[in-house]
Each structure stands twice: as structure tokens, then as C-alpha cells.
Specification:
Length: 194
């Protein structure tokens, strides 16, 4: 259950985003009516200056939205309590990923079903942030379950776990799926990033 403070921050962020959108629409409406009123004076100059104003305003709104997103993430997930879990693939013939489930301290925190495009991006070296959340300092256990097609096209479900110590500062964990050529099986590991 989310704390009241977190819900308060989410409402304020949503309100600021809606305000930015409303401001954008109001300015666009005002600019278009101003442009129509000025049209008889200089019909050739107005569209260019209007286009420049619109582009400038779009840039400002995008910048504001980016700043609001960064502020929301910083407030909701402060660095001293933050834990992020990423998934990467280095697989070939032994495993096709369908889904991953992540449990932190015996509580399900993420359950993700991958699309073909996402799998293709992971196979090209991409990394997916599966979970971002807050935990208290101390000992914790992360368990990940991987579901997909294993060798010879059979359904395959395997798990991997890691016990880790959360101290001050952010903690980054990686779920890694790789091929183990010697056993002709996929290998599932969880490791801490330094």
C-alpha cells in the first residue's frame, strides 16, 4: 500500500502536468487568434513567426514535462532507499524468454510479459528496468522466475535468487540470462552492480 506522502506527490505531479498541457492549449489558442487578427497586416511574416513561437512553446512544454518526470522519480524513489532491477540477455539457441516475475523479500514486485520487439531489443544488447522501488537498509532476498521456451522448444521455467545487503545509496541488481555451452542449457544469474 502506498503511503499518503507518495500518493500526494503523484497527485501534485499529475496536476502540474495537466496545468502544463492547459497552458500549452491556451497559448496555442491565443496565438492562433492573434495570428488571425494580424493577418491583413503582414500575411507572409505571421505564419513564420507563429511557427517559431509554436516550436519554442513545444520545446518549453517538453522540457517542463522532462523536469517533472525527473522530479517525480527523485521524490518517489530517493537514492538512499532505491533498489533497481534490470534484465539482460545473452542467449542464442537454448532459451526464448516469455516472461519474468520478481519477488523481493517474499513479495511479488514485478511480473512482466515480453513482446517480440522487446525480446529483439534485448537480444541486440538492450537492458530492461524490470523494477524500481524503495527498501529499507538491511538484508534482503531477491528471487526471479524466468518463463519461456527451453531447449528443443519445451516450456521452461527456472529461478535464480540473491541475498544482498542494502546500505546507504542506490542498489542496482541485474538479472542475466546466458547460454551455458558446456551443458547446452540456459543459465540464470542475479548479480549486484558495483
Amino acid at each position: 500500500m502506498k503511503s499518503n506522502f507518495v500518493m500526494f506527490l503523484q497527485r501534485k505531479t499529475a496536476l502540474l502536468r495537466n496545468l502544463a498541457r492547459a497552458l500549452f492549449v491556451a497559448v496555442m489558442f491565443g496565438m492562433s487568434s492573434t495570428a488571425m487578427a494580424d493577418q491583413p497586416q503582414s500575411a507572409a511574416a505571421t505564419p513564420r513567426s507563429l511557427e517559431a513561437d509554436v516550436q519554442s512553446l513545444r520545446k518549453d512544454v517538453l522540457e517542463l514535462n522532462k523536469d517533472l518526470s525527473a522530479l517525480e522519480e527523485e521524490l518517489l524513489f530517493p537514492a538512499n532507499t532505491q533498489v533497481a532491477v534490470f534484465l539482460s540477455l545473452d542467449v542464442g539457441a537454448f532459451f526464448e524468454l516469455d516472461a519474468v516475475q520478481v519477488r523481493l523479500d517474499n513479495k511479488e514486485v514485478a511480473n512482466y510479459l515480453y513482446t517480440e520487439r522487446e525480446i529483439a531489443a534485448l537480444n541486440r544488447g538492450g537492458v530492461h528496468r524490470v523494477f524500481l522501488g524503495n527498501v529499507i537498509t538491511g538484508k534482503h532476498e531477491l528471487v526471479a522466475f524466468f518463463t519461456g521456451k527451453g531447449p528443443h522448444g519445451r516450456d521452461y521455467k527456472r529461478g535464480a535468487n540473491l541475498s544482498f545487503e542494502k546500505g546507504q545509496g542506490a542498489k542496482y541488481l541485474e538479472l542475466r540470462i546466458s547460454d551455458r555451452q558446456s551443458a547446452q542449457q540456459p543459465e540464470f544469474t542475479v548479480k549486484e552492480w558495483e
